[in-house]
Structure formats: C-alpha cells, structure tokens
TrEMBL record:
Residue ranges constituting the Hydantoinase/oxoprolinase N-terminal domain according to the UniProt record: 2-179
Domain of life: Bacteria
Hydantoinase A/oxoprolinase domain location: 200-482
Source organism: Arthrobacter sulfonylureivorans
Name of the molecule in the record: Hydantoinase/oxoprolinase family protein
Domain spans labelled Acetophenone carboxylase-like C-terminal: 509-664
Family annotation (Pfam families): Hydant_A_C (PF19278), Hydant_A_N (PF05378), Hydantoinase_A (PF01968)
Amino acid sequence: MFGVDVGGTFTDVVAVKDGKVQVTKVPSNPQDPQSAVLEGARRLGVADSAVFNHASTKGLNAILTRSLPKIGFLTTHGHRDMLDAGRGWRPFEGQLNPHWRRSFGDAKGRPLVPRYLRRGVAERILADGSVHQALELDDARRHLEVLKRCEVEAVAICLINSYVNPAHELQLRDLAREVLGEIPISISSETSPRSREYTRASTTVIDIMMKLMYEDYAHDINTGLQEQGFNGKLNFADCTASLVPWQEALRHPYRILFAGPAAGAASCVQLGKALQEPNLICADVGGTSTDVALIEAGETFTNDSFEVEFDMVISALSTDISSVGAGGGSIISISSTGDIQVGPESAGAYPGPACYGRGGTLPTVTDACALMGFLNPKDFAEGQIQLDLAPARKAFEDLDAPLSFEQRVSYAYRIAVHNIAEEVTNVAIRKGTDPREFSLVAYGSAGPMLLPALLEILQLKSIIVPPNPGLFSALGLLSTDTVFSDSRTKYLALAPDNAGEIREIFESMEQELIERTGADPSRVLIQRSFDGRLYGQSWETPFVEVPAGPITAETLPGLIESFHQEYKRRNSLNFPAIPVQAVTFRVQLVVEAERFEYTASGAPNGGPAPEPATHRPISYFRGETVNAPVYDRASIGPGQSVLGPAIIEEELCTTVVLRGQQATAGRFGELRLTAASDQELS
C-alpha cells in the first residue's frame, strides 16, 4: 500500500510492505508537482503495490495565491457580483472592529473570477421550482460570445434556485457547448444541488477550476505509475480523507481540495485506537500553518462545508479543522508597533527559510529553531538539505527592532508556540471540552520540535509523537475506506406526513449511486444522514446519522432524537422542545479497504535510557545555553525514558524534550512526553 501527501514544501511518501512501514520525503516541485509523486513511488518501489492513495494541496495553494485558470461565470441577471459580495459576514477578528470593511472589486476583493468574465443572463426560477421568466437564449448567446472572445478555458454556471429546478442550467450548458465548443463546464445543480446561491456558486467555480488543474495531473500520475509497473488502484482522498477512485474524483474535484489535513486527523483516529486514547487533539505543523482538529470518543467532527479563506465557502463534507499561520516556514517580521510577529506569510518551498541556502533572506520559524540548536545542519530532511546558519543569522540581524539578537530568536520561537497554543485552546473550547483532559498528537515536520512546549502552557495530559511524524498524514491515507457519496436539498419538517417523501429521497439517491458505481449492494455499507436545524435557525447541524431500515411515521422520532444528540455533542446545548427541519439529505456507499494497523513491539522493558549519540548546545532559550544530549529515536526501546532537556532525532524529524519533561517510548513506536516528577528529576 502506498500513501502520498503532496505539500507545498515536501511530498511525503509512505509504503507498507509485509507490515513494515517505509518512508521517503521528496522536495515538491510547484512547476511539475507530479514529478515528486512519481519520484517517491520510484524510490520505494511501487510495482507490486495494490493501492496508491493520494492527497495534495495543489489546488488549495493555487486558490490561496490566485494562480488560477481563466474561466467564465454565468448566473441570473442581477447576481453577477455574488462572488464578490459573499455572504456579508464579518470575520472573527472584525466582529468588534467598527472600522472593518469588506474589500470589493477585482483589485482588493480578489474574487475567483474577475468581473468582466462574470455575466448575468435573463431568466428566473422561483424557490418552488416554477419558471417566472424563461431563459432568453439570444441574451445568453450574446454573453457566451463575449466569453468566447475572452478565450475562457471553462465555464461555471449557477442560476438562482436551480437546485430545485435545473432546466435552465441544462439549457444553458447545451448552448455554451454550441458556442464555445467542448470545453469543461460545471453546473451547480449537478455539482452542489443545495440551497444558498453564494455557497453553490463558489463551490461550482472552484469545481471547474479544479477540473482544469487536476485533469492532466491525474492522468500523468496514472500513466507514470503504470510505466513503473503499477497495476493496482489509484485513489484520491476527499476532504474527510475518504478514498475515491481517481476517475470518480475528477467528476467533482472540489471534494479533494482539503484532503491533506483530513488525512492527518484520520491517522490520529487510527493511532488513538491502538493506544486506547479516544480523546485526542491533532496538531499538524507544516511549512505554512498548523492545522488543529479534535477527536472525541474516537471520532472526528464533520462539517457540511468549509472555508478556504474568509467567506470563500466550499460545500463539501469535510473534517472540522482550524488553521493558524504558524508553521516551520512562517516568516518572522516586525509589526507597526515594533513587536515580533509570526506569519501568516510563509517562505514556501522556494526560496524557503534562509537557512536552506536557496536565496531566502527573510527569517522564519525554522531559522529560529536552527539557530537555537534544535536542528542538525548536516543531516536535515534525510540529508537532502544542508542547513547554512549564516544566512539565518543575517536574516534575524536585519530585522528592524530594538531587540538583541538573542531576544529576536527566542521571541520568534515563543510567539510561534503561543500562537499555536491559542488556536488549540480555541478549538477545544468551541467544542465544549477542556484541553487538560486531552493528549495532543504532534506531527508534521515541525510538530515534535515546537509542540512539546504546549505541555506546560496548556497543562495537557501528554504530548504524543507518533512513529514517522513527518509523514503521519500520508499514513492516514492508508487508514480509511473508499466512499461514493451524493446529497440533495429539500426543506422538510421531521413530521409524520413527510416520512414517505424523505424515504423516497434516500431510496432514489441510493439507487442512482449503485447504478453509477456498479457496486454490489450486498458488499457495500450504505450510510444515510441528514443536515438539520431547529426551526428558526439559519444554519444546520450536519451529518446526523439515519439508521438503516424503512423511514416511516413510527421511526421519525428516532431521527429527531439523533438530531438533538448530535446538536448537543457539537454545541453542548440541547433544545428538545423545538421542532426539527431537515435541509440536506446524504447517502454514502462505503467499500471497505485494507487498512494499515499498528502492531505492538512487545512488552516494555523499562530499562535505563540509552547513551546519547552526541551532545549539542541549545541557545537563546530561557536565558541559558545547555549542552543537551542528542538521542537516536531508534535506540529508545519500549518503556525507556529520556529526561529533558534533550533532542531526539530520526531521519525526517526532530523531537525537542524541554527541561522538566520526560519522553517515554511506547509499544507502538510512539513517544509520550509528560511532566517529569520530582523523583525522576532528582
């Protein structure tokens, strides 16, 4: 089994052969991203693999940087600016700021499609599906001729209320193909047949952009793997880390936009099962950001949509993940008040941190950690990068701040850590939990280096560093099933009179999925759910489970009770007296896949700690320089402990054990960092 997580800085590749995990890390190439995937497959030998599971930030990074293809957008007359206006919400940081203003226009608003390529056509369908104004074909043709002269590569179509009646969108698609030829076209009634036109529009626009970006990419990966002798199944992961055959993923590629972070959370679930830790905080510290998720009772939280950036909403099932701009590549700068600040800008893969020696001149968190002595300059990323501390030192010296060099480095590290701690606290509190009752899984290339400081700041139970933490998300791609899904929107009260209509919606979706995928109903698990809300609410509680069996007037009370239980789990509140309205109905066909399972290495021997391989000075930290022992992680057996301050190195990651902490190796290859007792310290 192969799992590949394509990040902005590195492409992480994991292979499981005969129960043994093999890993490699390949520098990502933004100009030719599939080359890193194929190089990783070549290094580990993909020929005999049964599956090749893939996740990528290719599309996500393109949206964030607006490196996007040229597309046209067609909507109902008078609504062309919906992509610019969004939902009219304020961001969290603007809630109490009376001076906050939304940025409009192509220059400041950065809409996905510039205004001259957004065209409004004469037509109107009402909320009940009736036609108020027929589609005026001559008017539509005139707008399409404009898009043709502008040489758009694809077209997204989102007409008002088309999720109820798609007739006009279907007509417009046929006309667009007549005028523009066989270019890719996405229509909202097929891509995201749900209410709320802005969310439907942004999802449809991103879907068509992802089709343009992933079509050749996916075919090149498939062809390249076949040339290496691979004859297994190529799957792409979606935003919940569920696997989808690559051809199916290309039908609606917006669903694979945020797969990498979701794969990390899935990997935490699998590790938690092995460790019998059902409550975990997941923290993936990458090059640009830290992604935080919560696992409670062995399950992640799933949302019915997510934001790529403020008010850019994608209507796709996704693992509930929050991000903060503090990663290894986050740039250190000086604020207008003269304070050190970390992120959200990142040095990226190229030129990367100053210490990479690729021409970077701005200091980053990685530069700070290298100067503090946490990293081995001669053996970074399997020796693929030789760290040069001179450019890192100059980058910090060039900061315009009334601080000593030592303060600049130390404060950069501390602020990055506290930014992450604040986000972890916010995630836990929003879910009504106490972070002191959770252990935190530290992964991502920079996670084990930065996150041990949170043990003291947040008083967590422990910090768990999994095996191969730098490639932990890629391992999560080998921990999920293949899933085919569909959804439909219809506002229906959970009342006896609507039981028959609800049953028909689910049955029709199940039948269509089975026919489309050719699945054998006896060999797949059919999961049904709905998004519901209390009457009067304007937002939904997603993914309320619907049990198997017929839906009748007698079984509806069970659905209502399931809704209230899920509502309480998410919000720590319960309002059983308020009626429930279903909004979106969902069906998933789950095909069980072979999963990676953790195996215990034997009983802990609890012997003395191994001898350190060497010692290395740690500077600029807590006002002192410490000659810290450096251990090879492979030398620490189950039950053995290492007291901090210490550094634990492995091929692709570094774990920092701070003073007052101890790291104990577990039976599944994990390291568990806890506060050392007075007896242990003595």
